[in-house]
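Researcher: Please predict.
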Amino acid sequence: LCTPFFDSEAEFLGIMPSLVENAVCSSISAKSFMRDYYEVDFVHGKLPIEVKYQENPDIRNALKLTGRIRSPMLVVVSKSIEKAEIRGGVRVFYVPLWKFLLYGIREEWK
């Protein structure tokens, strides 16, 4: 799959998080990301979206920014995690990349 474009599979896997972030950006037609001491990848309306293409995402900085912009929710696009939880008073929805790209922004997040 990656042979024509990359020298090795490791090189391909190394840029995979950037490719995933670009796919999410394109799917929601995002124009920018939010950075103010803490970073979240995108803000769609008032909904912060953090892309963490890994098994155990660290979302501490995204939660801090979510609180700073007073959003009650945070969406984390992950590799395979699908769950909802409350962390620090913020409803956090973890969605696998494939599902986010297939269904987009869900009504309950708006």
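Model: The longest strand covers residues 90-96.
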